[in-house]
């Protein structure tokens, strides 16, 4: 027990001293670490102070360098400003000297201008004095003298001028005629179409005169119904075996004619049957018109794909339209073919001439139903169906004196060829006489004309003038004026030749 107590006490003492030693050793180590840390911190501070000093030195050097560069830049700018200022001063000095020189020159010019004006005034005064002296010496005023001189020059140069004009006209006419004949001859030779065309009739043949009474009907009900449905007038006169169909529209006349043919063939004539016959005639005529338009396009080599069906129908209506007895559709086909052939010879646009020639008279298909002339109506129709302006213009261009395009000139020439060829057109006796009277009346209206004769079926007019009232030069001008007036005021197929005759006869008798 004692040993145990002693052992505990000894262990406690040993543990105390051991713990004290351990604590002392730890304190020493901590102090050592603190000392090391303080030394390290002092070293870092010293190092930082050294770096700070180095940075401050570098910054100071850089600031000094920047300041030096700024001073140099400022000095350079000041030198440039001084140079520019000196240049401006120099320019201002030069400008001032130029202004002074210009002012001196302006004063000199004004002085010279004043001298020139004074000189001109003196010259005018001298001219007036000389003119007055000349008028006093000659006994003529200035206007009278000028008129006499001009008259003298005109008399001297008139014969030479007239001879030159005739020579130029003959040269131009011969060359133009030669080329025109060549082109037209080749085109006509290649076309070689028939000279016989279909003429739309306006009368119906009857098997007997008894049929007239059946067509008229009781109290005229049958003929009234037929006239009401067709819009035409039926003329039942004393002509044996014929009934005349009269109407403004050729299409309506054709409907009436076909309906009458059906009624005469069928034999049943009453209002109900008349309505059926008129409806059948309209349907058949519509089919025939469409076929005529398609045949015309096929004959011209124009594809149906690019043509509106309504326009084909309008084109086919020309089959039942005539102009001076010439079938309008056949005339249009001829014009298109001739225009295409001449376009090939003249290197023009063949497609425009072909279509323009075929459709140039398309307005005639509707001119009985719409207001306006057929050239304007044709232009509007082609525009409506999407034709280009070059083709639409052909409808108007073939009636103008001077067409604007080469293609329009070709179509105009083809139209004249087709209308003027032998057998193409015909006039009634009244129309023929009226045209001759109008021709003679146009030429008789000019001063100095003594007699006028229309010859060769109205294709030539001969004008006799008073030889004492005009000279050769005035006669040539009068012939041109007569031709221009005929072109402007009259409508005629082909062309009209104007021959002016100025004849001087001297008669003396030997006794």
What is this structure's SSE topology?
Layout: H1 2-138, H2 142-191, E1 203-205, H3 210-216, H4 221-230, E2 233-235, E3 242-246, H5 250-266, H6 271-300, H7 309-316, E4 322-323, E5 326-327, H8 328-346, H9 350-359, H10 374-384, H11 389-397, H12 406-420, H13 429-444, E6 449-455, E7 460-465, H14 472-489, E8 497-501
Parallel strand pairs: 7-8
Antiparallel strand pairs: 1-3, 2-3, 4-5, 6-7
What features would you describe in this structure?
This protein has 511 residues and is mostly helical. The protein has three domains: 1-139; 203-420, Hypothetical protein af1432 (Orthogonal Bundle); 429-501, K homology (KH) domain (GMP Synthetase, Chain A, domain 3, 2-Layer Sandwich), CATH 3.30.300.20. Helix content is 70%, strand content 6%. It contains 14 helices and eight strands. The protein has helices spanning 2-138, 142-191, 210-216, 221-230, 250-266, 271-300, 309-316, 328-346, 350-359, 374-384, 389-397, 406-420, 429-444, 472-489; strands at 203-205, 233-235, 242-246, 322-323, 326-327, 449-455, 460-465, 497-501. The strands form three sheets. The protein has a three-stranded antiparallel sheet, covered by helices on one side. Strands 6-7-8 form a three-stranded mixed sheet, with helices on one face. A two-stranded antiparallel ribbon has the order 4-5. Strand 4 (322-323) and strand 5 form a beta hairpin. Helix 2 (142-191) crosses helix 8. The radius of gyration is 57 Å and the shape is flat. The relative contact order is 0.04.
